[in-house]
């Protein structure tokens, strides 16, 4: 199957996945790939312009984020088949995130041909435990890994030789299930400091799960946690540092 056009599409809360996606984009620029963040709902008709889709996402609680899963689940089944490459960023360990999202892509008639994981700054831990921040960094071998992966990807694109792979199920990831369960159940609320907020509405535009709304009685946006997956994108994009994690924890809705 000749590969003609490539789309790099990603979801990123605090920017690590975006950084890796931008490196893919820059290093493959002679092949003219396009680069976009996912939006929900997504205009799936644009995927018709591409033969190869590279999907990047952070690992949350040992899995792909709900937003990424939703993006793939709502995708039409492709005819003819499309080639897909997957990568994830993670703080400690990607568990079976690539395996599960890879399976979902195959259900959409994608030929999965490459998966990769890159250790990146653990955004949740860095926000929850600021003194530990220096411990959370990109993996030491990230540059080498990226160079090797990009060389492989380039060869696949240029030669159009796409070999289907099956991501490995990591049995030992099951040991992480208690962590995953508690990580999903107990989480933090976000609050806005009205005195700091400059009412720029960036949080409203950045949240793909539409958790932020313009307030009716005040210009300070209102947060609704019903669908929040705690990616902290709003926190990282707030120019006034007005969005904080409240000290109160709560049971997550799902
Ligand atoms: C809600 C949440 C859950 C996370 N769960 C995991 C996890 O289970 N395993 C892991 O290794 N890293 C975990 N991380 C760390 C992220 O995978 C890592 O920081 C990732 O690079 C963030 O990407 P981003 O900067 O593009 O948002 C989690 C981060 C968040 C915000
Ligand atoms: S409201 Fe929740 S889902 Fe939306 S950007 Fe903020 S942390 Fe992410
Ligand atoms: S991004 Fe920050 S400053 Fe801007 S509206 Fe949201 S809370 Fe206020």
Reconstruct the topology from this structure.
Layout: E1 6-10, H1 16-27, E2 34-37, E3 52-58, H2 66-73, E4 82-90, H3 97-107, E5 110-119, H4 123-128, H5 142-159, H6 177-185, E6 186-192, H7 202-206, E7 212-213, E8 222-223, H8 233-237, E9 243-251
Parallel strand pairs: 1-2, 1-3, 3-4, 4-5
Antiparallel strand pairs: 6-9, 7-8
Count the strands?
9
CATH topology of the largest domain: Rossmann fold
Level-1 CATH class name of the largest domain: Alpha Beta
What is the overall pLDDT average?
A: 89
Protein name: Flavodoxin domain-containing protein
InterPro entries: 4Fe4S_Fe-S-bd, 4Fe4S_Fe_S_CS, EFR1-like, Flavodoxin/NO_synth, Flavodoxin_dom, Flavoprotein-like_sf
Pfam families: Flavodoxin_5 (PF12724)
Keywords: Iron, Iron-sulfur, Metal-binding
């Amino acid at each position: 199957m000749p590969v003609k056009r490539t789309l790099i599409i990603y979801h990123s809360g605090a920017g690590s996945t975006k950084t890796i996606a931008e490196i893919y984009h820059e290093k493959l620029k002679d092949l003219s790939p396009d680069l976009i963040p996912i939006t929900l709902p997504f205009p799936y008709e644009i995927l018709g312009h591409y033969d190869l889709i590279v999907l990047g996402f952070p690992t949350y609680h040992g899995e792909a984020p709900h937003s990424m899963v939703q993006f793939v689940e709502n995708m039409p089944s492709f005819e003819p088949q499309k080639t897909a490459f997957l990568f994830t960023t993670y703080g400690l360990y990607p568990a079976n995130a690539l395996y599960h999202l890879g399976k979902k892509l195959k259900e959409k008639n994608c030929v999965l041909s490459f998966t990769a994981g890159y250790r990146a700054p653990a955004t949740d831990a860095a926000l929850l435990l600021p003194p530990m921040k220096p411990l959370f960094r990109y993996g030491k071998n990230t540059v080498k890994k990226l160079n090797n992966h990009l060389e492989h990807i380039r060869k696949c694109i240029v030669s159009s030789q796409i070999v289907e792979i099956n991501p490995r199920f990591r049995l030992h990831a099951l040991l992480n299930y208690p962590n995953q369960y508690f990580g999903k159940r107990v989480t933090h609320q976000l609050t806005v400091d009205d005195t700091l907020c400059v009412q720029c509405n960036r949080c409203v535009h950045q949240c793909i799960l539409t958790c932020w709304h313009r307030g009716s009685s005040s210009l300070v946006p209102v947060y609704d946690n019903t669908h929040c997956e705690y990616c902290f994108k709003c926190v990282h994009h707030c120019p006034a540092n007005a969005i904080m994690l409240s000290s109160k924890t709560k049971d997550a809705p799902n």
